[in-house]
Amino acid sequence: MAVVTDQLHRPLTDLRISVTDRCNFRCVYCMPKEIFGPSFTFLPRQQLLTFEEIERLVRIFQTLGVRKIRLTGGEPLLRQGLETLVERLAAIPGIEDLAMTTNGSLLTLDRARRLKAAGLRRLTISLDSLDERTFRAVNEVNFPVSRVLDAISHAEAAGLTPVKINMVVKRGTNDKDILAMAHRFRFTGHILRFIEFMDVGTTNGWRLDEVIPARQIISLINAAWPLESVPPDRPGDVARRYRYRDGGGEIGVISSVTEPFCRHCSRARLSPEGQLYLCLFAPDGYDLRRLLREGFSDQEIREAILRQWRGRRVRYSEERLQLTESRPKVEMFRIGG
To answer: What is the helix (H) or strand (E) element at residue 125, kind and residue range?
Structure first.
C-alpha cells in the first residue's frame, strides 16, 4: 500500500476519535464553567456518529495508512455502551494500537476490565495536581484527587498498561506541583507526561506568559533526579521522552507552544458529529457524516478523505507567534486533546 502524505510529506498514521462532546469536568484549560455552564447545550444524540458509522470510517482510514486509534471526548466514558465500539474497532485488521484518554472519573475496576476484554490496549488518564485544593480548582466540579488515583490503579489492575498520566501545566495554577507529581509516579511503571498549556479553542483565556516551557520542566526534574533522553517509539510521536538515570521510570513532555512538532504530525481527528479535522487548532472541519448518511460508497468517502489529507498544509504551532490576529479554532472538547 502506497504511503499517503500531505503537502509537507507527512503520512497519515493516527486517528483520534472524539465519541462525545459531553464532559463532567469543567477544566479551566478546556471548558471553563463560566462559559460552559448548566445551560450549555451539547450535541443531540441523533447528530453523533453511530458506532456503525465510526467503524465504517475506521475501516476506510485503515486503507489509507492509519494504524493507531485513540478514543477521546469530551469524556469518552460518558458515551453509553463504549465497550461495543472498542470491540468493533479492535477487530479491524491492520489497527495495531487502540487506546483511550479519560479523566478517570467513571473508571471503576469492572469498567476497566470490560474495556480490556473488549480489546482496548492502553489508557491515558488526566491528572493535573496531587494537591486537593489545586485539583478541585482546575476541574471546577470539586472532584477529588483520590478517585483519579483509584482509576489509575484500576487501569493497572486490568492490564491497561503502561498507564500514561497527562498533566497540563499552567503557570500560577499548578506549576508548583511538578516535582510532587514526578515523585509520586517514579518507580510505578506509569508514564507521566507534562503538557504545555495550549491555546486550543477560543474560550480558555490562553496567554503565552502562563506557559511553562517544556525545557524548564525537564530542567527542574533533572536537578532533583537526573534524566537522560530516550528515542521516540516511532515517527510522529509528539511527546519527547526521558528516563530517570536511577531506574525510576520514564516521563515525557509535550511542547506544542515552545518547541512545535508540526513537521512530524501524522494525526487526523474526527469529531463526535463526523467532522474531519486536520489539526488540533483547525478553524473548521470536513463533513464526513453527510457522506455516510447520503449513501456515498466507501470508495467515494475514501477519495474525499484522501483529497483532504493530500491538500493538508497546516502547521499552526509553528506559525503561532507570527500571527498578528487571533482566529477561530475548534474547541478541545469537540476533538479531544
So the answer is: strand 122-126
C-alpha–C-alpha distance, residues 258 and 210, integer Å: 12
Query: What is the 3 state secondary structure string of 274-315?
Result: CEEECCCCCCCCEEHHHHHHCCCCHHHHHHHHHHHHHCCCCC
pLDDT tens, residue order, the chain (337 aa): 678 999 999 999 999 999 999 999 999 888 888 888 888 899 999 999 999 999 999 999 999 999 999 999 999 999 999 999 999 999 999 999 999 999 999 999 999 999 999 999 999 999 999 999 999 999 999 999 999 999 999 999 999 999 999 999 999 999 999 999 999 999 999 999 999 998 887 777 788 889 999 999 999 999 999 999 999 887 767 889 999 999 999 999 999 888 888 888 999 999 999 999 998 888 889 999 999 999 999 999 999 999 999 999 998 787 776 765 667 778 878 887 6
Q: Where are the domains of the chain?
A: 14-335
Query: What is the C-alpha separation between 157 and 155, in angstroms, rounded?
Result: 6
Helices marked H in 3-162: 51-63, 82-90, 109-118, 132-139, 145-157
Question: What distance lies between CA 206 and its chain's CA centroid?
Answer: 18
For 335, the grid coordinates are: 476533538
Taking the C-alpha atoms of residue 216 and residue 234, their distance in angstroms, rounded to an integer, is 25
Q: How many CB atoms lie within 10 A of CB 112?
A: 22
CATH superfamily of 14-335: Aldolase class I (3.20.20.70)
